[in-house]
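Notes on consecutive records. When two proteins share a document, each keeps its own sequence and its own token line. Never mix them. Below: protein one.
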Amino acid sequence: MKPVPRIPVCRLNHSLNLSAGQKPEITLASPAESVFWDFDSRSPMLINPAVSVDDAAYLMHVTHSKIKLVVDARNRLSGIISLRDIESVKVLATASAMGVERKDLTVKDIMTPVVLLHGIQRETLERSRVRDLLDVLEFEGQHYLLILDGQSEVCGLVSAEEISHRLGQPVNIEPVVHNFSDVFTALNVSNH
């Protein structure tokens, strides 16, 4: 006969309280740090630029991560890719512009390259509100804002998609064109 365990067991009533695990509600006046993805406390998900877009989408689904940092062989940041990018018309427009099939596209072809990303110092983030971040993202036409520590190293990220989700309202980020190629791409995407 098995010995009786010393831990008391109770019957469950089959109800589940999920409110304890939900993120707190935010407003535009909330501290900017409330939407900051701090890489010191939660490591970023990384992906190689040579991974196919289909494999990247699969990885994002199975890891429940909508954003991955693209890093090269030396672990240097090359860009950012999101599930939103992979599931958008940007993929088909890029394949068409490159004259390849969708299955031949890689993360490098779709990612937002680091040279197009913007950042702010962490001390600026600490003095800001969510509205300030949205103003910067909308003005720059960016979906991401890198956060830099005192040595100008990337220590975190702010995502327009995360802000939208946490606010419970859409955030409209219109891309800002930097050169003729961006204009051509924007026109190509809107025509597909």
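Protein two starts on the next line and is unrelated to protein one.
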Amino acid sequence: MRAITFDIETSNVFSATTRNDLSQLNLSVVAIHDSETNEFSSYSQEELPKLWAILEKADMLIGYNSDAFDIPILNKYYAGDLSKIHSLDLMVEVQKALGRRLRLQSLAEATLNVGKSGDGLKAVEWWAQGLYDKVREYCIEDVRITRKLFDYALAKGMLKYKDLNTIKDIKLDTRNWMTPREAPSITHTLPF
């Protein structure tokens, strides 16, 4: 099963008048880990045709807050519908088990003993300052963390989080995470 773990960064943020309107956000970078090659890579808007060739062959997309944020923003640039590809949103899985959403940072610190190197707002600032490679590196690091959390959850059936300086377990039902789904019917942009 070819799984693509991914994350996006945007080049702008919501304004007071466009609050929560994803159509107002613009992609700066998308980073991925491809389970088939075990490689990390990143793509700017201009490089998206290279990414589509990979995503169109994916059996599964893995992300964090990806169903509600990353996929809808990527769909602005894609001729098909990426939401038709089987996806696993780790934030949704955690919310189902715990009853509330957690930041990726909280899970990374408690489960993997690593911290994030920034946040989405900082990435927007870096992009505006022309620090494009820094944004790419940050985005790839988020993908690396997301992939490690996914692998940990598959192996242990749980993740960990900090709650008032106490580390607690979140039991996750991972039994069907890697079950292949029927091939999606998406509009491909490439001639196969």
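For the record: The helical segments are 48-55, 66-75, 90-98, 104-112, 120-128, 132-156.
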